[in-house]
TrEMBL record:
Disordered: region residues: 24-46, 303-327
Swiss-Prot/TrEMBL keywords: Signal
Ranges annotated as biased composition (Basic and acidic residues): 303-315
Signal peptide: 1-20
Protein name: Uncharacterized protein
Protein origin, superkingdom: Bacteria
Length: 365
């Protein structure tokens, strides 16, 4: 969750591990801010206030406050943030090693800079400010619509209605390009600061005919709020993704990291083997539907997009781990991946032994 990530960054700031961080901060980057001048009764450790989401903040957005340097017993339930940008005092709660709160900015805020003070038992211990910008009118967006889409391609649908007077949470997208109506939902992981952002990522229908399709957004009352248009066209000869640039399937030890030049890996019956597939230009509509099949496997193997650290700098790649049938006789068995709507078919081979698996990789052809 982004609040946890912000807390981790805050810890780096406090320990001095992030000295190169932007001193000005940003809506998504925590920054350490000035504490109030200590009094004779101030604690030995000077309180430090870190805000996240305080710059370029829209009315109604959330600001994440973290106060360090005040102990749990010292602050108790008397740590409070005050600002004319907030509807009222906001109490901070204890978590791990600091006090924190999510504070909502008033919808009626005008653009400007608003002071913010954190008090402990009525005494100011830290001060900062929140920079508020103008409200933005509701918007319905489909980022992928800038390009020509492929049948089956996932698309991101987003509705932002953080605007005075907007209500309701039941928003639905309908289109002949979709297999069914799609409900937009709020996701704290992607829209941490905006409580009125709603989204979904459906796939366009398989086998969709070439053409331009209307995508409509409907509100809780069934009224159409907005429309957008997407252009869909299947890949044709000459398009990069018509055949792609595929390699594999490569077979390797699931207990080892993938590397293409390892010696052959030979699993035992009942053991496991991992499959890797590369494609410089994967079909956008097949990225979630690639499978590897083999008479040696207990069933079809779904290959999922690999976005791990190990994939950095590599061609787009897809992987999965299959279980070898326990009743299988030793021998050499084909492993086949079909891609680009049947236009590309490649087969590798796995050698199954009656002995314990040996390490390495088997390259596909």
């Amino acid at each position: 969750m982004k609040r946890a990530m912000a807390t981790a960054v805050a810890g780096l700031l406090l320990c001095g591990c992030a000295g190169a961080a932007d001193a000005g901060g940003s809506a998504h980057t925590p920054r350490r801010t000035t504490s109030a001048a200590p009094s004779p009764a101030a604690p030995a450790v000077r309180p430090s206030l870190i805000l996240n989401g305080e710059t370029d903040a829209r009315p109604g957005e959330l600001v994440h406050l973290m106060l360090y340097g005040v102990g749990r017993a010292q602050g108790g339930d008397a740590v409070v943030a005050r600002s004319p940008a907030l509807a009222g005092p906001v109490r901070l709660s204890w978590e791990d090693d600091h006090f924190w709160a999510l504070a909502a900015l008033k919808m009626t805020n005008r653009p400007g800079r608003y002071p913010l003070t954190v008090e402990v038992r009525g005494r100011a211990v830290a001060k900062d400010a929140v920079q508020v910008v103008r409200s933005q009118r509701p918007s319905f967006t489909i980022p992928e619509a800038r390009d020509v889409l492929r049948p089956g391609q996932p698309v991101w649908l987003g509705f932002d209605d953080l605007y005075p007077g907007e209500r309701g949470t039941d928003f639905t997208v309908r289109s002949a390009a979709l297999s069914a109506p799609v409900r937009l939902v709020h996701d704290d992981a992607t829209d941490f600061y905006n409580p009125r952002a709603f989204s979904a990522r459906p796939a366009l229908r398989q086998g969709l005919a070439d053409g331009t399709y209307t995508v409509g957004l409907y509100g809780p009352d069934g009224r159409r709020i907005a429309t957008r248009h997407v252009k869909v066209r299947a890949a044709r000869p000459g398009d990069r993704d018509y055949l792609g640039k595929a390699s594999g399937p490569d077979l390797f030890d699931p207990g080892q990291s993938y590397w293409g030049d390892a010696p052959p890996f030979r699993p035992a019956a009942g053991g496991r083997v991992s499959v890797m597939w590369h494609d410089d230009y994967p079909d956008p509509g097949e990225e979630t539907r690639l499978t590897a099949v083999s008479p040696a496997f207990t069933g079809p193997l779904r290959l999922r997009h690999d976005d791990s650290k190990g994939a950095d700098g590599d061609s787009p790649r897809f992987s999965g781990t299959a279980t070898i049938r326990p009743d299988l006789k030793p021998g050499r068995y084909p492993v086949t991946v079909v891609a680009h709507h049947g236009r590309v078919k490649r087969t590798g081979y796995v050698t199954v032994t009656g002995r314990r698996a040996s390490a390495g990789t088997v390259r596909g052809r």
